[in-house]
Amino acid sequence: MSSTNQTHKLCMIPGPVEFHEDVLAAMSTLSTSHVSADFISIFGESIELLRKIVFTAKGQPFVVSGSGTLGWDMVASNLVEPNEDVLVLNSGYFGDSFSACIETYGGKVTQIKAPIGDKPSLQEISEILKTKSFKAITITHVDTSTGVLSDIKEIAQLVKEQSPKTLVIVDGVCSVGVEEIRMDEWGLDLVMTASQKALGVPPGLTIETFKQRKAPVTSYFASWNNWLPIMNAYEARKGMYFATPPVQLIYALNTSLKQITSVPLEKRFEQHKKMSKYVKDTIEELGLKMLPKSRDMAANGMTAVYYPAPLTAADLLPKVASNNIVIAGGLHKAIASQYFRIGHMGISVTEPDRKHLEETISALKVSLKDLGYTANL
Amino acid sequence: MSSTNQTHKLCMIPGPVEFHEDVLAAMSTLSTSHVSADFISIFGESIELLRKIVFTAKGQPFVVSGSGTLGWDMVASNLVEPNEDVLVLNSGYFGDSFSACIETYGGKVTQIKAPIGDKPSLQEISEILKTKSFKAITITHVDTSTGVLSDIKEIAQLVKEQSPKTLVIVDGVCSVGVEEIRMDEWGLDLVMTASQKALGVPPGLTIETFKQRKAPVTSYFASWNNWLPIMNAYEARKGMYFATPPVQLIYALNTSLKQITSVPLEKRFEQHKKMSKYVKDTIEELGLKMLPKSRDMAANGMTAVYYPAPLTAADLLPKVASNNIVIAGGLHKAIASQYFRIGHMGISVTEPDRKHLEETISALKVSLKDLGYTANL
Fold it and tell me: Could you tell me which residues carry N6-(pyridoxal phosphate)lysine (chains A, B) (predicted)?
């Protein structure tokens, strides 16, 4: 057992989040063949359960070993052909990176880049959609670097009305399982997420687009030509080999998906909204300023907050850690040193008896006081 | 806890192998920030320890989340420029796949394809090296589909003499930690391996080649432009972000690397040779035929064996499993139904008190007998 387990500090950052004991136990599942009946059943069921998380009946989940970033490679290498135009809505650092990924595979990126703490407006999107025929539009649902939440339902509606052939791609890394996402009802073509691995969840339409592409797929590991037969096989409860799946992680995923789908998702979303309100109300009461321009564009799974002058990361983060809570520094390159981030997702929210958020807020208050910040304490 | 833990069958396939209890415990390390001091220290140390496994002082390890297949994408997208020639030595299924990966990224593949159970000869390699200027040669050290072991030392020597600019790339997925690999001494330019994730271990020379490439890197997630600063940062014991690393897997990797490097590697290689001899001697005594043409080209971490007529996979594999041992079916597409594979790597070999191999051989004998196979039983 690693030494960190003996003095565990709560990991209250916008991912990795705190894990349920049963999920961690599944991580140490004894070695099992990736083509054994036991594992095939777990993998197949996980693929099915993923559809429920984003309310899709026809979507084709992909469960592939890799970081969330690999999901971008899947989008860029499978759905965008060289020289096709892609509209990237930029509400923070991850818009920049997704753009770089698309350009690597030959896509031509047009960005609407919002000021830090803001998001592209519907009007801006509408105007730019008139200028070109875009193969796809990408939306960072929650930009983890700013905590800004985009309204994917409204944007999808606009795109479907104005440019119905444009694929609506949602980067849901920091939102799937936290925010409401109705793939089929809202007309989303692809939703990707991650949990140390990339989960891409494209519906039939997207697969059709993929099947109609003319240029060869420009990645090997990320290619749906390689992965689609594997997903179909496991869902049909057959084993098939392209690359060895991360067996233990998929047992853990299965455990987590069963937990998540055991209560109505609507309740889960409400819980996240409620806990987010509790954190953000407290931050405002303390007189601290948040990154998102307004509360209605703030994510429900995380909170990004400016340090109150003259405090810095070097003061606050170690002080909070000394109170056994780990929060995160800034990530947006332009202002990374000026703010911190608190994650409030998963069991820290859905199992309030654990008191994770209370302990986090308490540690934050004590730390601020110890550092001489007194406004509203 | 998953139900498989209660009726665990030994996983004696050529990967995933049986894991040490301490490695599994590390898999359930409580959530830890990927930029925390604790994790940075574990990640940095793991990068250093990897050099020891392949005897390199100057090599640059990359530890990236993904299947072993992603290692091919790293080679093909970072080291090979479009239209450059690559010589692929094919000793089984994995030579075909590596070729497909290189071609995806624009490399021009020439293959020397050995008959099943054989490997390209030094003479064939020497002759083909005279025909073109190859950017790289790839060698599957152990082809997991056939159990054929290639002599990377001899091949590297030949290439360095005859075509010194050609990069020597070793696919060590089924050999690193089992077979002797001396990167610096033998002049290997890149060794890749996997353990539910790709570990690429290129030395300084390869990084130089990478830095001199003219065409842009054609992958995003696999690009060393993105990963090199991260590896340098963690080794210098600083956190840095490109994509979230698989924290728990890296704790497990660290635990395993410390175990492996706690005894001289020479002893480890000898143990694997000895246990491989025990398995192969038994197979021969039973009158069964192995895939590799001769014992001197058979891998030490696995054994591939033809079913004795009239037995098939449908007879033998479930029967062995009913004796609590999981062995693997065939993987080489041309003859997949005709043979089975036993893995003998890691703790099943280095900790003989566990009796994994004895139990496996015993289960195999009992199963063959039950199925009516009597020759030499």
Answer: 197
